[in-house]
């Protein structure tokens, strides 16, 4: 059997397990990482993932030991200390008037190192803060890591509008570029509540079906084109990609929906006025700051 762990941001590592070790799925184990000894939950890897790993060869990590009762008590105490450290660091940063939003504090199991994750709109000079933290946490190595808002969401976890755990908490390791064109081409309302996630950036899933939308849209007559319908000449003012239908407007102002095989494009101009903005089946409910929604340098840092 193969076992693995998932570290922050869906980075998976197979485990080096001794042959006589009795490890079970879901068990907590102590693992040696580049940060030190850390606690992770083990999961059993299926045969398909094992084949993928033979190809990509992720770095295996060594299991120090299975967590015993004494270890679990220490781990519970560590979680409390991490919360205390989080608030201490935040308060010290506020005293220094540093614009930093702290996300999480994490100790290694031996408590020789503590990592503070934070987001910030721009580069922060935290040298004085580091001195304060050195005084506060004696004989502990301190690491301050600037991360992006998408990274923040992947650490804190939660559920999206789809009702499932965030993609960045389940399987997404690398954030792809997302822009508002993806939402517009899929006919999604351009309102922040519809197209953004908890991170305040555009939903990563806008990328997932975009190719299918474009391929289907290419099979339909474009908006503004003239078409011949069973009821006469009309002009296309909206397409419904999911239904593979088009809404057309006739000269008398009547609007009707037709399937693709019921209409035929015609050459030349059709003198029928259409107001695309007014005839769309959705309207912008709010003033959208497009720049704020699109990815920027602070969306993700890869510094986790």
Explain briefly what this protein structure is:
Among the domains are: 3-67, no CATH class; 72-146, GMP Synthetase, Chain A, domain 3 (2-Layer Sandwich); 215-279, SH3 type barrels. It contains ten helices and 14 strands. It is α+β, with helices and mostly antiparallel strands.
Could you describe the 3D structure shown?
With 304 residues, the chain is α+β, with helices and mostly antiparallel strands. The protein is 28% helix and 25% strand. A hairpin with a 2-residue loop joins strand 10 and strand 11. The chain is elongated and about 80 Å long.
Keywords for this entry:
304 residues, alpha+beta, GMP Synthetase, Chain A, domain 3, SH3 type barrels, six-stranded mixed β-sheet, five-stranded antiparallel β-sheet, 25% strand, elongated
State the total count of DSSP E strands: 14
The helix count comes to 10
Whole-angstrom Rg:
27 Å
Mean pLDDT: 86
List the helices and strands and how they pair.
Elements: E1 3-7, E2 11-16, E3 28-33, E4 36-41, E5 43-44, H1 47-56, E6 61-66, H2 69-95, E7 101-107, E8 113-119, H3 127-136, E9 141-146, H4 149-156, H5 167-170, H6 180-185, H7 192-195, H8 210-217, E10 226-229, E11 232-240, E12 245-250, E13 255-259, E14 264-265, H9 276-279, H10 290-293
Parallel strand pairs: 2-6, 8-9
Antiparallel strand pairs: 1-2, 1-5, 3-4, 3-6, 7-8, 10-11, 10-14, 11-12, 12-13
Helix pairs in contact: 2-3
């Amino acid at each position: 059997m193969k076992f693995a762990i998932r570290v922050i941001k869906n980075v998976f590592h197979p485990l080096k397990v001794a042959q006589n070790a009795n490890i079970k799925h879901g068990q907590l184990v102590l693992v040696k990482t580049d940060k030190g000894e850390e606690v992770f939950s083990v999961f059993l890897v299926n045969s398909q993932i094992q084949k993928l790993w033979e190809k990509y060869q992720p770095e295996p990590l060594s299991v120090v030991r299975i967590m015993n009762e004494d270890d679990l008590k220490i781990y519970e105490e560590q979680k409390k200390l991490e919360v205390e450290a989080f608030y201490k660091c935040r308060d010290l940063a506020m005293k220094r008037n540093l614009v930093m939003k702290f996300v999480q504090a994490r100790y290694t199991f031996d408590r020789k190192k503590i990592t503070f994750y934070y987001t910030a709109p721009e580069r922060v000079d935290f040298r004085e803060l580091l001195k304060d933290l050195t005084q506060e946490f004696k004989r502990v190595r301190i690491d301050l890591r600037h991360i992006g808002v998408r990274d923040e969401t992947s650490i804190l976890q939660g559920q999206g509008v789809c009702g499932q755990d965030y993609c960045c908490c389940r399987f997404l390791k690398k954030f792809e570029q997302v822009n508002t064109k993806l939402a517009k081409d899929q006919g999604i309302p351009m309102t922040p509540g519809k197209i953004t996630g908890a991170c305040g950036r555009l939903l990563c899933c806008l990328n997932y079906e975009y190719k299918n939308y474009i391929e289907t849209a290419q099979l339909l007559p474009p908006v503004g084109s003239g078409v011949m319908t069973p009821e006469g000449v009309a002009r296309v003012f909206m397409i419904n990609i999911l239904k593979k239908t088009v809404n057309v407007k006739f000269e008398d102002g009547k609007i009707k929906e037709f399937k693709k095989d019921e209409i035929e494009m015609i050459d030349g101009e059709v003198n029928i006025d259409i107001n695309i903005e007014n005839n769309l089946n959705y309207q912008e409910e709010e003033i959208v700051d497009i720049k704020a929604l699109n990815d920027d340098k602070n969306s993700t840092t890869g510094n986790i």
